[in-house]
Amino acid sequence: MNPLRSLWFNLLLGFVLVAVIAVGVVAVLVNRTTTRQFEIYVSQGRQMRAQRLAPLFADYYVRVGSWAGVAQWMASLDEPDGGQGPGWGRADSNDRLLLVDPEGWVLADTQNVLVGEHLTETEIALGTPIDINGRTVGILIAPAAEDVHASREVQFLDRVNSSLLWAGLIAGLVALTLGALLAWQLTAPLRSLTRAAHSLAEGQTAQVQVRSGGEIGQLAQAFNQMAQSLARQEELRRNLMADIAHELRTPLSVIRGDLEALLDGIFEPTPEALASLQEETLLLTRLVDDLRALAQAEAGQLKLKRQPVDLVGLLGSVVAGFSPLAQSQGQALRLETPADLPLVEADPQRVRQIVANLISNALRHAPSSGQVLVSATVRPTEIQVSVADDGPGLTPEELSHIFDRFWRGRKARAEGSGLGLAIARELVRAHGGRIWAESSPGEGSIFHFTLPIAQVSSVRRTHTSACVGKSDEPSFAQPGEMRYNIAEGA
After folding, report:
1. Three-state SS for 135?
2. Mean pLDDT of 471-487
3. Could you give the CA distance from residue 427 to residue 435 in angstroms, rounded to a whole number?
4. Which fold would CATH assign to domain 215-298?
């Protein structure tokens, strides 16, 4: 990767730019403020100097009676001990003085530059009036020096600017050093994430250390969760392939063995032998259909033919279809519904498949002489269907995997395809409902799922409970009327 495009370089560049801009702004503000305040200070100093000298000029005017010879007298102020009165001495060559008459004409200039020139009112306003008996006879002005290169004020400002420049350079170096360290520290977790992502892309397990609780820490946690999820998905994928291979191998081995026996003349092609082959073929077909339905549901490609469904009649039909199996195993299969059960918005064939998978699973786990109860409960916006059995129940670990593909309970390890509950979960989700299980070891299991209530008038029912399997029950269909596939358990 180009170092100039790295996040570290961009952060460092950003830190340095911010520092340079900040130092530059501070330097400009300090320079302007210092210059302005120093100009005010110098101006006030010149005015105070003119005010101190004004009495001397007034005394000269009183003694002479005019300003005649004042230029020579002003020059004598610059001579050693040539000043009038104690405390004077040689003035700096830049301490210029102007004497102006009341009309603004320059009478004397210590540098003999502006003599005879007329000053503006603004320039005159900076001076100190020289009053004699209440009459202004002149104005004394201490202007700035013309030689700016020799001006002490300019020299002072140059020293200030030089100090600001050095301070800016030092601050820039400090910002560069600290910015580099800070940028390196900030990007360290991202570099770890990058290395972990490369490892993950190569199929290796990868985790990053979470050092903080900020945004980068949250990113690291999310990455770890993603890595764990990918590892679980990869494990599930491998298990799925192994399970599919195992499930296909058994019926295919039976079919192959029977066909080889028939070809070798070991078995005769009797109706019984052909029926066995057909049974194994149907098992394969059912497994492939279940896999296809599960794949479509998980991919969101399952097309539902939604319509208002009479759930009471549908449940009764499915329960009646399982009645012979329950009776043959000595189990009691019952259906209980409220007197007034609204219609649901669902695909009736898919709901039949959901209920059939749950009942098949319950009958498989319920003991002989046990019972399975199918019930429906009205919720504010949905109908909750429950299938309960009095089987051995599930441990918390088993309960967490109950809807996984190809997972089977302890009793049903060798029974069914292990796809029934996984298919039921995806079908319920496709309807916008919820499905969950409740179970404790030794107390049986209850599977619940919900379906949305249809936006039509409710259909009232006159029965609330029925014991299924009796031929005189008018609300249930006969077993021979059932026309749907049942996935074999979970």
Report:
1. strand
2. 33
3. 10
4. Helix Hairpins (1.10.287)
Identify the CA nearest to 432 among candidates 484, 386, 382: 382
Going from the C-alpha of 259 to that of each of 36, 69, 282, 288, the distances in angstroms are 108, 145, 16, 21
d(CA 391, CA 450): 23
Q: Residue 333 corresponds to which tokens in the numbers above?
A: 């299969």
Q: Do 307-481 and 215-298 fall under one CATH topology?
A: no
Inter-helix orientation angle 215-263/271-298, to 10°: 160
pLDDT tens for 23-70 read 888 888 888 888 888 778 777 878 888 888 889 999 998 988 888 888
| Count helices and strands in the chain by DSSP H and E runs | 10, 14
Sort strands 371-378 and 332-336 into parallel, antiparallel or unpaired.
Answer: parallel
The answer to whether the Cα torsion of 459, 463, 469, 473 is positive or negative is negative
User: Where do the domains of the chain lie?
Assistant: 1-202, 215-298, 307-481
pTM: 0.49
Helix axes 311-328, 348-365, angle to 10 degrees: 30
The 3-class SS string of 90-103 reads: CCCCCCCCEEECCC
Residues 112, 94: Cα–Cα separation, whole Å: 13
